[in-house]
């Protein structure tokens, strides 16, 4: 989806047309947690027939919003990248009631959830803001990057992350949070950190949906790293 020159008016109109169909919007939202799903599952999520789902998926692929992984006779659809996820989250921001209004969302989903494959919600925003304040993260023209002090702090907290050189080379991005209207950590760096938190048991996936459940130990360790929930 990324285009260094930026979208022109025709591309922007095409993006709007892709989202104007509720079935296509439902398919995209079903994939915003970073999973890859078969067409049949996406058809059920959208409430349409298999043939109709196939036509919608073809349009989303041609529009650059989806990618597909072929495994034998099976095809699994996913968002093309986390730029698409960030764009969908931003598009979901309510336009009524003023910028500072907070949308009504189930408390567990607002507290912590996945946005593509990185941590979002109140906890995601708290992590990003605390790590910027502590100089674990730095913002530059390329987005967000982890500093040496941050890599050391995360390792000492017990997160199994890639080797330091590779970790410091990962780029992050400030992703505008749908519920909090502030930034959480996205991009490859956000994906790596969130994956490490899941592996360490600091976060657990809910049985259904995008909500993440922080464990008591996870909250304790994140508090030591500066990120606290009110």
From TrEMBL:
It holds the Pfam family HTH_20. This is Helix-turn-helix transcriptional regulator. Transmembrane segments: none annotated. InterPro entries: ArsR-like_HTH (IPR011991), HTH_ArsR_DNA-bd_dom (IPR001845), HTH_Metal-responsive_Reg (IPR052543), WH-like_DNA-bd_sf (IPR036388), WH_DNA-bd_sf (IPR036390). Residues 4-99 form the HTH arsR-type domain. CDD domains: HTH_ARSR. It comes from the Bacteria. SMART domains: HTH_ARSR. It comes from Rhodanobacter caeni.
């Amino acid at each position: 989806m990324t285009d260094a020159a930026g979208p022109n008016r025709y591309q922007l109109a095409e993006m709007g047309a892709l989202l104007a169909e509720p079935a296509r919007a439902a398919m995209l939202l079903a994939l915003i947690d970073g999973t890859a799903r078969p067409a049949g599952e996406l058809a059920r999520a959208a409430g349409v027939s298999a043939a109709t789902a196939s036509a919608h998926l073809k349009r989303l692929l041609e529009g650059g919003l989806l990618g597909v992984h072929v495994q034998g006779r099976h095809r699994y659809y996913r968002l093309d990248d986390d730029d698409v996820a960030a764009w969908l989250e931003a598009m979901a921001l309510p336009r009524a009631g003023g910028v500072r209004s907070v949308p009504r969302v189930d408390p567990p989903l607002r507290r912590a959830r996945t946005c593509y494959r990185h941590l979002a919600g109140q906890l995601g925003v708290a992590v990003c803001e605390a790590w910027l304040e502590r100089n674990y993260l730095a913002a530059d023209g390329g987005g967000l990057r982890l500093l040496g002090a941050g890599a050391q702090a995360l390792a000492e907290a017990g997160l199994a992350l890639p080797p330091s050189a590779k970790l410091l080379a990962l780029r992050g991005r400030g992703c505008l949070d749908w519920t909090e209207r502030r930034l959480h950590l996205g991009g490859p760096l956000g994906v790596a950190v969130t994956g490490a938190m899941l592996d360490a048991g600091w976060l657990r996936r809910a049985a259904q949906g995008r909500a993440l459940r922080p464990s008591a130990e996870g909250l304790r360790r994140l508090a030591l790293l500066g990120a606290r929930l009110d």
